[in-house]
């Protein structure tokens, strides 16, 4: 499995305290993405300028001669094969390999160490990127979890073949299912993919006995309209345990800076509490009493 990151003691990725495994690769490309380093399926090296002392060792050890330096810092070439030599040799850990290969058994050995912290509600969450891109490995991991009585959560954008979700259903204790935009043209504009398959899979999943939390990122100027919430409310209704409207945050700006990418939402402020309450009310009035909102909001106008 190609793992981007493993986060411990997470309180935002399902019930209770959880260990969340973030996988590489996503079929969507949401313009607001908070994990831009997860979109590319292949591994890459990330440079943290604040830790770099400019010693140049990485440039001399790279077997591919794929490291260059300029006034903006250290850069790895497109032909970097993610061998990890530079990350191991860097004396200050300014270079980090993003996308480490694990076998299912090895990954299980890592996550199960956290068992003592999970309590009765917590467990393992697999997120992304899009977790179902590596669904066979996720299935094997969840099967191991269930053999040991470990609670499993799958964080998904819903964009995969039905058979994938059918295979995962018996081993998934809760689905964290993202629904972003009701209007398909808007969905394509902001995520690069149609919402048709996502909605079809949701319809099917909602008709099973699966435990589901729907999540909708509330993004200023994109998903935060009355029409969008009204439309999604008609789909979600009260067929799930919870519908969480997650207020936009801008904490990922430094990730875009490290990747050398422009972020469409650079400088965008937080949502206001009143607007989050209004959108939640709209969801309630349009057939979804399970809607709640979460996240930090702006302190002032
Ligand atoms: S990961 Fe390997 S190939 Fe890529 S830049 Fe570092 S040393 Fe070079
Ligand atoms: S080896 Fe590490 S500290 Fe030295 S130049 Fe490369 S990134 Fe910077």
Layout: helices, strands, pairs:
Blueprint: E1 2-10, E2 18-23, E3 44-47, H1 57-61, E4 67-70, E5 73-76, H2 85-89, E6 95-98, E7 100-101, H3 104-111, H4 115-118, E8 123-127, H5 135-147, E9 151-156, H6 162-168, E10 174-178, H7 184-191, H8 196-206, E11 212-218, H9 226-236, E12 242-247, H10 253-259, H11 273-285, E13 291-294
Parallel strand pairs: 2-8, 8-9, 9-10, 10-11, 11-12, 12-13
Antiparallel strand pairs: 1-2, 1-7, 3-6, 4-5
Helix pairs in contact: 3-5, 9-11
Bound molecules: iron/sulfur cluster (2 copies).
The site of one iron/sulfur cluster has 13 residues, from helix 2.
Output the strand order for the largest sheet: 7-1-2-8-9-10-11-12-13
- Estimate the strand proportion: 15-25%
Q: Which small-molecule ligands are present, each listed once?
A: iron/sulfur cluster
Structural class: alpha/beta
DSSP, total strands: 13
Q: So what's the CATH class of the largest domain?
A: Alpha Beta
Summarize the structure.
With 301 residues, this protein is an alpha/beta fold. The chain contains 11 helices and 13 strands.
Description:
31% of the residues lie in helices and 22% in strands. It has 301 residues and is of the alpha/beta class. It has two domains: 2-40 and 100-294, Aldolase class I (TIM Barrel, Alpha-Beta Barrel); 44-97, Alpha-Beta Plaits, CATH 3.30.70.20. The strands form three sheets. Strands 7-1-2-8-9-10-11-12-13 form a nine-stranded mixed sheet. It has a two-stranded antiparallel sheet with strand order 3-6. One iron/sulfur cluster binds at residues 47, 52-58, 74, 90-92, 94-95. The site of one iron/sulfur cluster has 13 residues, from helix 2.
């Amino acid at each position: 499995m190609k793992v981007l990151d493993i986060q411990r003691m997470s309180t935002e990725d399902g019930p209770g305290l959880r260990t969340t495994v973030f996988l590489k690769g996503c079929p969507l490309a949401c313009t607001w993405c908070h994990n831009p380093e997860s979109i590319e399926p292949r591994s890459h090296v990330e440079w943290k300028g604040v830790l770099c002392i400019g010693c140049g060792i990485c440039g001399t050890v790279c077997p591919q001669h794929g490291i260059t330096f300029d006034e903006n810092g250290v850069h790895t070439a497109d032909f970097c094969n993610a061998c990890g030599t530079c990350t191991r040799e860097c004396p200050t850990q300014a270079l980090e390999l993003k996308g480490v290969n694990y076998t299912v058994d090895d990954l299980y050995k890592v996550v199960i160490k956290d068992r003592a912290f999970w309590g009765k509600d917590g467990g393992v969450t697999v997120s992304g990127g899009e977790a179902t891109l590596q669904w066979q490995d996720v299935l094997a991991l969840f099967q191991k979890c269930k053999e040991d009585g470990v609670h499993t959560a799958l964080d998904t954008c819903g964009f995969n073949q039905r058979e994938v979700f059918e295979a995962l259903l018996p081993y998934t204790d809760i689905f964290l299912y993202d629904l972003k935009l009701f209007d398909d043209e808007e969905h394509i504009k902001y995520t690069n993919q149609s919402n048709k398959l996502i909605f079809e899979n949701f319809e099917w999943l909602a008709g099973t006995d699966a435990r589901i939390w729907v999540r909708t990122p509330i993004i200023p100027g994109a998903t935060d309209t009355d029409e969008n919430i009204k439309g999604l409310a008609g789909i979600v209704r009260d067929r799930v345990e919870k519908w969480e409207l997650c207020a936009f945050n801008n904490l990922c700006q430094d990730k875009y800076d490290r990747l050398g990418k422009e972020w469409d939402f650079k400088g965008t402020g937080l949502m206001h509490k009143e607007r989050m309450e209004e959108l939640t009310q709209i969801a309630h009035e349009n057939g979804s009493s399970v809607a709640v909102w979460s996240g930090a909001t702006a302190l002032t106008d």
